[in-house]
Amino acid sequence: MLAGDFESLGAHEQLATQLVRLLRLAVILSMRRKNDVLPELVIKEHNNALTLYIDKQWLDAHPLMLSELQQESLYQRKAGWKLTISN
After folding, report:
1. How far apart are CA 28 and CA 22, in angstroms?
2. How would you classify the pairing of strands 49-53 and 82-86?
3. DSSP letters of the chain?
4. Which of the chain's termini has less CB crowding within 10 Å, N or C?
5. Which domains are delineated in the chain?
6. Residue of 14, 25, 20, 23 lying closest to 53 (CA atoms)
7. Which residue, 61, 68, 64, 75, is CA-closest to 28?
8. CA 77 to each of CA 18, 30, 41, 43, 54: distance values in angstroms, whole numbers, following the listed order
9. CA-closest candidate to residue 80, choices 42, 52, 47
10. If the chain, 87 residues long, is cut into consecutive pieces of 10 residues, what is the mean pLDDT of each piece?
11. pLDDT at 41
12. Closest CA relative to residue 79, chosen from 44, 47, 48
């Protein structure tokens, strides 16, 4: 999305941007799940930077999910946003 895209639609740009970022994470976390249960997740925001806290043992057991989250972090960085995956 380009700066101002949300504003031109009459939306609060910062809120809309955060919602898009969270939606992208939700899609990643929901894909490839069958009967596997996600661990407890915590997402914190500070100065437009997001940190996703997720259990390291769970990520170690799900390397494809870790790879998807790391790739998303790169995509968000290219868009000028910061996303950190932590435990």
Report:
1. 10
2. parallel
3. --TTHHHHTTS-HHHHHHHHHHHHHHHHHHTT-SSPPPPP-EEEEETTEEEEE--HHHHHH-HHHHHHHHHHHHHHHHTT-EEEEE-
4. N
5. 5-86 (1.10.3210.10)
6. 25
7. 68
8. 14, 22, 21, 17, 20
9. 47
10. 57 82 93 74 94 95 94 96 95
11. 92
12. 48
Predicted TM-score (pTM) of this structure: 0.81
CB 27 within 8 A of CB 43: no
pLDDT at 3: 52
Here the tokens at position 50 are: 């997001």
Q: What type of residue sits at position 3? A: A
For residue 42 the two structure tokens come to: 């915590």
